[in-house]
Amino acid sequence: MELLTSIITALILLTAFVFLMQNRIHSMINTFIWQSVLLSAVTFLQALKTTEIELYISVLLTILLKVIFIPYLLRSFVRKLNIRHKVAEIKYPFLLLIGASALVLFCYHLIIPISAISWNEASNTIAVAMAVMLLGMLLLITHRKAISHVIGFMSMENGIFFAALIATKGMPMVVELGIAFDVLIAAVLFGVFFLQLRRSIDSLDVDRLNLLREDTE
Amino acid sequence: MIAFYLTLLLPLVGTLLMLGIGNLRIAGYCNIIITIAGFVASLFMAHYFFEHGAFLAIKQQFYIDAFNLLIIVLTTFVVMTTAFFSNTFMWINAATNRISTRHLRLYHVMYQLFALMMLIALAANNIGILWVAMEGATLATVLLVSLYRTKEAIEASWKYFILCIVGIALALFGTILVYFSATQELVQAKTGMLWSVLALHANHFDPTIIKIAFVFLLVGYGTKIGLVPLHNWLPDAYSESPAPVATLLSGLLSNVALYALIRFKILTDLALANHLADNLLMVFGLLSFVVAAVLLQRQHNIKRLFSYSSIEHMGLITFTFGLGGPIATFVGLFYLLVHALTKSALFTIVGNVVQQTKTNSLEKIRGLIKNQPLLAWVLLAATLIISGIPPFGIFTSELLVFITCVKFLPLIAIILVGGSILAFAGLLRNIQPVVYGEPTPMTKSKICLWPAILHLSLVLILGLYIPPVLQQLLQQAARLITG
After folding, report:
1. What is the pTM of this model?
2. Most buried of A183, A198, B236, B371, CB within 10 angstroms?
3. Chain B within 8 Å of A214 (Cβ-Cβ)?
């Protein structure tokens, strides 16, 4: 079981790297589905181990929200906005990978002192969770198309959820539901924004949002 | 106790009610009535607090003490006065077809929802709920910022949306780390999210985890406060959103974010028993203060000008909390209070000015005093007050910050004085020609200034005299924060 958890953890980290290298929105959504499936699998393992009812609910929640609903929502945005072309040009793939790897090392560097002091077998996974979160942020920074920002944000959210799961055996139910609801609303708001952006600048390229600069006024 | 439930329940009822009301007149007046009731309820809650002391509610998920009570009453008060302003303001907008009826309904729903989320965030004992409500408040205001649907407004609200949700996601990670260190110590792991429980056990928490957690929380909630270098969204969002929204964002939401950060600072101080949190707050506060005072000089948009003034003051308030000790904290709380009142008054006034002149540009608005004498006088007065002239509250608090700072860090006190003078010059240099000068033609429509005048008079009174009730509350809150 421990081994299985470690393998899934490694795979989740892999998906975070895969995001960075992709430039088509459909493959990004597919990767997101894989990441969420892996996340629910690891939640399920945790639930078996701790036999907490709440964790089973949380598995269900993850599957419903992140494996089914949000990808469905994203696909319908893509259809509605008719995005066929590549969503991003990755300029320096090699540098990006080096940077991403450095981030992972940095996370381990931060987490190691914790595991030295206190309990646990899970410090490895906490480092990974933190890395997944920061890689999601890296995706947000490097990709300049609004649609890949959703994926970046959702990947961050997955990383955080993963951290909560491994480190603390799940959060209180109220909080978890609240977070899930917020994520859902955020996903819907992203859709609203795509429509508004398309209408106002006729593109989802955030580099073209340049009206509000200090000098241009 | 009933008053506590009512305070939270009223905006909830308001949100649901606004979903159903399509008529602008009725919606506007309902908004006013609900917010008045909310303010009265919060006063009764304060009364209950003075009789019974701090109390927990709803299965310990909510907790009222002197610190959040102070900000809750402030919030309900500003939400109420802004509702009056918003009614007049939005009525004119609708009459001139700047906003459609559909968008107005959305506006009123979100207004109430925003108030609800802020109140939940403030009253929450559960740090998870605090986070959820902060995120909720952000999401509720995103669509309000882009309400005018201009290119600029959409750009501003996109920036606000993306920066704040990413920032606040980092705060969630910090929250989880705090919870993680709590589960290591507590017998009942699930209570590890309750602030009242955390505060009791924080001195046993693992310092390494708490250190990392505080950094994440600072970045996360700091984004919402608008601390440099995470402030990029703030001038855009304040300047492009409708005036009542800018009023609420500047006067209230940044305070709620600061409140959340201070709550975690209390835990961090207990866990680390050193000045790490204080130092971080001081560094980022001072940086924001200086950078904003400089950037303020080169603004051409009246709303952006005052947005930078917001960053400057929030920076100084953050710095004051970082100074630590009961006196500095007392001053910080007082400063927070008068700044919220003054800044919301300012955005109300500026909203009126922009509505009259139909432009944001500082170069185009001229000679306000000839066409709208009252508006011009109030604008001038508010500008002077926010820049810190005696005997108003902002002056008193800046003076006290300065005195406290001289005692501990005399060199930094010089920076404070320099920055304040710089900001004073920048504001006055820009506002003076707006008030005087050759008048530009402007349309005259109804203005709603009394909420601003009320706020400014309160700031005047607070500058001269702090009522014993308030003083007691401030002292209790300061004691709570410094432990």
Report:
1. 0.94
2. B236
3. yes
